[in-house]
Specification:
The protein is about 30% helix and about 15% strand. With about 550 residues, it is an alpha/beta fold. It is built from 19 helices and 18 strands. Pathway: Porphyrin-containing compound metabolism; siroheme biosynthesis; sirohydrochlorin from precorrin-2: step 1/1. Siroheme synthase involved in methionine biosynthesis.
Length: about 550
């Protein structure tokens, strides 16, 4: 039985928003250090702060400096009601855009309630220090890095926790991430100017508050792929590790866009794809390792795959391999991430195969790193056959290492026993995406079977109706995304509502769909709710996961510790 929640569900949280304050007038009542800080924040946002205080008021030195240099205006009067309606911009009739009451002690007790009431009646945003009940807005604890801003609030109930949490978040980010935001924003602008002028943006494309939609991985057809470089850029931002994005320079952005354009051309070393320079049975100098990286958390790597990561000369990784695993790759090792997106999968696959062959023929050890298990819908069999047909058919020329498949581990992390006595006595693993993006036919309904659909969420709109024709609408379902990762998400619902749930909640790839009675064995469905969402997973980290867990132990063994 779950422990009772300590959170009061009756308390409404704030709606967080980023306000365009350019040329706004912010009225500041007070002259203390907080007043100086509020003026600095207003100036940073492009607003014009106006301080209202008597001529005899003692000014904080920082505030005095800004008044002296002309960046802050000082109205040398005690606060009066008319200040709210006469000091603002002409275009809004003189009404100020926001009010900050920073004065403390008796002055706040005297002015705070009055100013708050007056502002509320006239719909002027107001913030009164240490009086949440008098405020219509509050300021967040903010980390700023160029265009990147991260704000944290405890809605007045966390004492100084907001600043602590903000520092923890900021310290975990790679340096130069703000510059990366600037660069990729410039790349977006260039794409729009160059070849995307007439292509409509997807709904919410420019809105930071919108998660990836369920259509994020929708198939891009050959007819429109040439005009969708924006889609390619979005995939880079979604799948590349943050450290890699933060290290991107201006010339790297040019290469990213050029790489997209190359999708219409034959892959590099294209001749290698059709012929072999090595005679059958003759082992080339290098070797190729096909390895699965598991569902996501680095502690779920096998020791063999970890050793391969540490010793490879070149790593060719799928875009779904998470940052926690890629972080284990030594800095000295070149890494190439597949530029796959719907509509370009075959081109990207050919490029990786060509790159692997070229490096192996040069005597290098190539690690082809995949998500999950390479032989469970990972195209590992195809790649092995391809390498063999191109001369890598001698013993040891290609090694295949297993990985923990999400088909079986993701249900476990979502507390779904895929087999359970008197509930489910068989498991069927299917794909939701056939060749060239076509949706396959769903399996027949067997009440005692748990069915796991991999690569199905972007096809759910088509898959769900065809499944409903064979399955009862009340069949329990679970959508499991980023299994084993800290941002794991589980959506529990039924076949009747699964498509609607995914459309409403958005996409967080990679994900899979589990269907069958086992889905509600440990989590009975709540009456009256179409679906329920569960966020986060920390189980492995609490066991000492990440760099301090199994990976550290493996390193210790390798060093003879």
């Amino acid at each position: 039985m779950a422990a009772p929640s300590l959170i009061d569900a009756s308390i409404n949280n704030s709606m967080l928003a980023g306000l365009n304050c350019t040329d706004n007038i912010h009225l500041v009542v007070g002259t203390n250090p907080l007043a100086a800080a509020r003026c600095a924040q207003s100036l940073a946002a492009g607003a014009h702060p106006v301080v209202v205080a008597p001529q005899t008021a003692e000014l904080h030195y920082g505030l005095q400096r800004r008044i002296d240099d002309g960046s802050v205006k000082w109205v040398r009067e005690a606060f009066a009601d008319e200040h709210l309606f006469t000091l603002g911009r002409e275009e809004v009739g003189g009404v100020v855009d926001a009010v900050f009451v920073t004065a403390g002690g008796p002055l706040r007790e005297e002015l705070g309630p009055h100013i708050s009431s007056l502002c509320k009646r006239n719909r002027i945003p107001v913030n009164v220090v240490d009086a949440p009940h008098l405020c219509t807005f509050s300021l967040l604890s903010v980390h700023s890095d160029g265009p990147l801003q991260i704000g944290v609030t405890t809605n007045g109930r966390g004492c100084k926790l907001a600043s602590r949490i903000r520092r923890e978040i900021a310290s975990s980010l790679p340096p130069n991430l703000g510059a990366a935001c600037q660069r990729f924003g410039e790349a977006r602008r260039r794409i729009q100017q160059h070849d995307d002028k007439e292509a409509p943006l997807a709904e919410g494309d420019l809105d930071d508050s919108v998660d990836q939609s369920a259509l994020f991985n929708k198939l891009v057809t050959e007819e429109d792929v040439r005009n969708r470089r924006m889609r390619w850029l979005s995939q880079v931002c979604e799948y590349w590790p943050l450290k890699k994005l933060a290290s991107v320079a201006d010339h790297d952005v040019d290469r990213i866009l050029e790489a997209y354009a190359a999708a219409e051309k034959p892959p590099r070393d294209g001749g290698d794809l059709g012929s072999s320079s090595s005679s059958p049975g003759r082992r080339p100098k290098g070797r190729i390792i096909l390895a699965g990286s598991g569902p996501g958390h680095p502690d779920l790597l096998t020791r063999a795959t970890y050793n391969a990561i540490q010793t490879a000369d070149l790593v060719l990784a799928d875009k779904l391999v998470p940052a926690g695993v890629l972080d284990l790759i030594p800095r000295r090792t070149p890494v190439e991430i597949a530029r796959k997106f719907p509509g370009n999968a075959e081109q990207a696959q050919d490029e990786l195969l060509a790159a692997a062959l070229a490096a192996a023929r040069a005597g290098k050890t190539v690690l082809r790193l995949k998500q999950g298990d390479p032989f469970i819908y990972g195209r590992g069999g195809e790649e092995l056959a391809h390498f063999r047909s191109h001369g890598f058919d001698a013993p040891g020329a290609v090694t295949v290492l297993p990985g923990v498949t999400s088909a079986l581990s993701a249900p476990l992390f979502a507390a779904i026993p895929a087999t359970q006595r008197d509930v489910a006595d068989q498991v069927l693993v299917c794909t939701g995406t056939g060749k060239k993006g076509k949706a396959p036919s769903p399996p027949e309904y067997v009440p005692s079977r748990t069915v796991v659909f991999l690569m199905a969420l972007h096809r759910i709109v088509g898959l769900a109706p065809s499944s409903r024709a064979l399955w009862p609408l009340s069949t329990p379902c679970a959508v499991i995304e980023r299994a084993s990762c800290p941002d794991q998400r589980v959506i529990r619902t039924t076949l009747a509502h699964v498509a609607e749930a995914i459309e409403a909640e958005g996409s967080r790839p990679p994900g899979l769909l589990v269907v069958g009675r086992a889905c509600e064995f440990l989590h009975p469905r709540e009456k009256g709710r179409a679906w329920a969402v569960e966020e986060g997973f920390r189980g492995l980290d609490e066991l000492g996961g990440g760099a301090g867990g199994m990976m550290a132990a493996v390193e210790g063994l390798a060093l003879g510790a």
